[in-house]
Amino acid sequence: xxxxxxxxxxxxxxxxxxxxxxxxxxxxxxxxxxxxxxxxxxxxxxxxxxxxxxxxxxxxxxxxxxxxxxxxxxxxxxxxxxxxxxxxxxxxxxxxxxxxxxxxxxxxxxxxxxxxxxxxxxxxxxxxxxxxxxxxxxxxxxxxxxxxxxxxxxxxxxxxxxxxxxxxxxxxxxxxxxxxxxxxxxxxxxxxxxxxxxxxxxxxxxxxxxxxxxxxxxxxxxxxxxxxxxxxxxxxxxxxxxxxxxxxxxxxxxxxxxxxxxxxxxxxxxxxxxxxxxxxxxxxxxxxxxxxxxxxxxxxxxxxxxxxxxxxxxxxxxxxxxxxxxxxxxxxxxxxxxxxxxxxxxxxxxxxxxxxxxxxxxxxxxxxxxxxxxxxxxxxxxxxxxxxxxxxxxxxxxxxxxxxxxxxxxxxxxxxxxxxxxxxxxxxxxxxxxxxxxxxxxxxxxxxxxxxxxxxxxxxxx
Length: 462
Known about the structure:
Layout: H1 2-24, E1 31-32, E2 35-39, E3 42-46, E4 49-51, E5 57-59, E6 63-67, E7 72-73, E8 81-83, H2 85-88, E9 93-95, E10 98-102, E11 107-111, E12 114-116, E13 129-133, E14 138-141, E15 156-159, E16 163-167, E17 170-171, E18 181-182, E19 186-190, E20 195-197, E21 210-211, E22 214-217, E23 222-226, E24 229-230, E25 240-241, E26 246-251, E27 256-261, E28 263-264, E29 274-277, E30 282-286, E31 289-291, E32 296-297, E33 302-306, E34 314-316, E35 327-328, E36 331-335, E37 338-342, E38 345-346, E39 355-356, E40 360-364, E41 372-374, E42 376-377, E43 396-398, H3 412-461
Helix pairs in contact: 1-3
Signal peptide: 1-25
Protein name: Attractin/MKLN-like beta-propeller domain-containing protein
Keywords: Kelch repeat, Membrane, Repeat, Signal, Transmembrane, Transmembrane helix
């Protein structure tokens, strides 16, 4: 019986260790148009367009995050991914959606984009916003008052401490509408009261309907909209690519639109690109495509708009060696001086076959004159990006909270490994002690039996 017990304990240790190894080696499947947002040290990813278990393609309901308190290399499989899908999967399959964060309520909001019922692949039309409680890891439908805007895709949002600013985008059959409609309206979601606000913007001119741009909110409350496509009316007539020498901005404090003419080395047109904001006012623009149908890469792959220069809004196109394949519809997040680029669609005319990817790439932006692609993320040497939380859109999140030594906690992977090691060690010691005690008892019993046997023999001989 004791040996059966020992076998069970050892088998349990083996199974638990195998489970830890499976968690440790989790790698997300390739996807693009994924939503991402940084909350404390966790870089969350939601949904995206990728392959289903039956090899068909569609919007995914997966939820996972990258632990930015752990150092890693992009050259091997030690990227600290944590999969939450089995316990906190999205209620619907989502892609081309956007995400925002309310730190006061510990909530992440997923809104707009495609929302597909995973069981019947039908558009979900009754819910525009889902909320995710980061503490209990549960989803719920957000009940929001006011007049909700029509569902749309290919838009981006910006966020300050109180409001989510949602501009532009387009709707069509993919979003559940019969006809294609291009938008140039500004919708504001008050995250404190969870209500949609009516906006009456002003300005000498108002921007035309547009989609597939980036949205970057500066420290002064100005939102900068870069790239994308535009149409002459809501019906999508005369669609053209937005030139990068003219940029629309929106003053969130005055509800005022302004068209700014930029200077410097003007980069080429693009859609599906990303943009992150550095602490000194630089907007780093990466990737994208210059042609929707051909999936040809935007040129150059890297461009920088300096909003704090004299005069302001000067473009430059720095060179960065060892650049990865140019991506479109990827995720980009700035942590310290490291831009984390993940997933996306590999464009044509690269050394890598086009299509979805699950790769992670790192760009060091610390040196203005020398942008460098690196392969190691060192969490211990990162400098705080900001002393207060700041937000941006889902595909171009701007990082937030200073990473201080006191904020660091043991990651789930390390905790599981330590738990498995300690548990199995204690179990092994207990087994050894029990085995020694039983062996001593058995030897004592055996010696006693032998002595009794000798005594019996002596009596019979007499």
